[in-house]
What does this fold into?
Amino acid sequence: MLLKLENPKLFSEIISIISELVLEVRIKVNKEGMSILAIDPANVAMVSFKLPNTAFSEFQIEREEVLGVSLESLKAVLRRCSIGSILIMEKQENELKIEIIDRIKREFNLSLIEIEGEEKQVPNLEFTSRIEMSSSDFLEAIEDCSVVADSGSFVTEAGKFVIRAKGSLNSFKSEFTDEIKIQAQNANAKYSLEYLQKIVKATKITDKVIISFADDYPLQLDFNTPFIQLKFILAPRVESED
It folds into this structure.
């Protein structure tokens, strides 16, 4: 297995975002490309990342490979990439050899690890609400909610999308109408802002986010580019209204 990636800063950013939720992952490499599917230790959030073989300037693989890696170690190495760097990843026995080539050539070797647990699959979810909006507006709304509470409610009604939060003393509401694309029935669900604050770091990779949810149902957030598919699924917080 040998993978060559030009300008790997975006890949580095994504690994850093995923590491906010999970410490270790299986990186699967097959003829279609590279993918990661992982669930956080508390079984609250799932992340799915896909990078097709066309994103690589060189893609050599004889058989499917599954690489167990520490994200902290991988993130630390990828942070050494600069704008214009070239990244080469090669599996050698029980190690992942990583070369970073720019003004100089650097070589790192990361030990591959065994990761316990069954292989996971993205659940088949049926949503009643789908919103496409500015990722920066979504980021601001989540940050605003976190000022007053530890959970936020997503609401669709009468052609509008509302994100709101209510704490013991204070509250916040942000309403979106004309600036979004919405296909929705009336729905209301509450989610952890601690997790959402980690997930919205993905807004830096694209200017659009697709938000899918239903009444007291998991939330799906898609941050996609022409080459990258990055998806998060977050369990709802089901509790009585304040």
